[in-house]
Amino acid sequence: MGTHLEARRLNSLADYWPVVVIGAGPAGCLAAREIARRGVRVLLVERDSFPRHKVCGCCLNFRGREALRKAGLNDLLENADAQELRSLQWSIGSRSVTLPLRGGVSISRERMDWDLMKAAIDVGVVLQDRCSAEPGEEFPNHRLVHLQNLQGKRQISAGLVLVCDGLSSRSGKPVIQENSRIGLGTILPSSSKYAESNKLWMNVSKSGYLGIVHLEDGRLALAAAADRSAIREFGSPGQFAMELLRSARQPIPESLEYAQWQGTAPLTRKNQIAEGRLFRLGDAAGYIEPFTGEGMAWALTAACAVVPLAITPWLPEHRVAWNRIYREKIADSQRKCRLAAKLLRSPVCVSGLVGISKIVPGIAARIVRQLHPVGSN
Ligand SMILES: Cc1cc2nc3c(=O)[nH]c(=O)nc-3n(C[C@H](O)[C@H](O)[C@H](O)COP(=O)(O)OP(=O)(O)OC[C@H]3O[C@@H](n4cnc5c(N)ncnc54)[C@H](O)[C@@H]3O)c2cc1C
Q1: Helical axes 62-70 vs 295-305, angle rounded to 10°
Q2: Residue-range domains of the chain with CATH
Q3: Using a 6 Å cutoff on CB, does residue 299 contact ligand 1?
Q4: pLDDT digits over 97-108, tens only?
Q5: Which residue numbers delimit the FAD-binding domain (predicted)?
């Protein structure tokens, strides 16, 4: 996959950038690339060093693929050997059903985010990695951005700041839902117990759910949304996952016991979409539990949608415009996800749905596809 990119010295950066993008996940990388492709100078600031994994179910649905296609990045998934997802197994308690899926793929976040970052650099985006950024005060002609890395601190200014720093975003006024679940994830070596590639296993219990999918190199990505009280009760994410798999009568991958888990901040949240000379995109703009596996598609769709505003000199009306565009392109499809998340809090509902699926697979497949559009088109 390549080696680390050289850390740029903070004091070698220009004082002013027309666009500064904070965070190099799917939202940040694609937005930076699409803006730079239109001839605007873009600085992309990323806290981590790539390639890196992040907590994610690693399923990209057809809307996410469509956003990549529109950006001319058709080959990215194929070159990475992304796996087509052809079936979804839903399991709860003793009930289990397998339904067809189409249009979605699985791909590791190490690979996808790294390839997106390289695609951005290829069109002239300047990357400052291993550097943390926070938006600062707004002035009539610019907004400050505070940068910090191991070498020190630096302040630069930007015509527009795109905040794409994910769930850890501290800027704005994030409002976190009280009983919000947290995200958990790990990557395991391939397992004979989960030999079928092209399949997504979703296991549901009253305290959360756990998805398992094959990655392009045969490893397994496990990602869960869990009640915080359940993690306390079981003592660790690994125990929670094993208990969930047992309750759904599913096999436990050999190496699960020794897995290193990563966690996230509470998932369900809202944030301000726009401020003066600042737009939020992706998880930084708000997030809902990931059952429907759409977060990357929302991030990529928002990245494409922001371009016309980002390449136009700033006008105060842009705040209203970004709120409207965001509502039309993203918030409407998030409503369905919110409904799914609510239904999934009721094991009786899920169990009923799985039961119906067995009796009337055609109708149930349609309902499940609506709730879980990882692969539908
Ligand atoms: C358990 C779970 C399962 C999921 N499963 C799926 C799935 O199957 N399919 C799907 O589409 N989505 C899924 N998602 C959602 C998906 O992971 C996110 O919606 C998606 O990553 C959002 O992209 P983003 O670019 O907004 O943020 P991120 O991908 O989180 O990227 C943000 C980047 O910003 C960087 N950053 C953070 N703070 C700073 C800072 N101060 N300065 C500089 N850089 C910073 C981070 O290092 C990171 O690289 C899942 C999420 C969870 C929690």
Answers
A1: 30
A2: 10-54+109-175+269-339 (3.50.50.60), 74-108+178-267+340-371 (3.30.9.30)
A3: yes
A4: 898 998 999 999
A5: 18-301
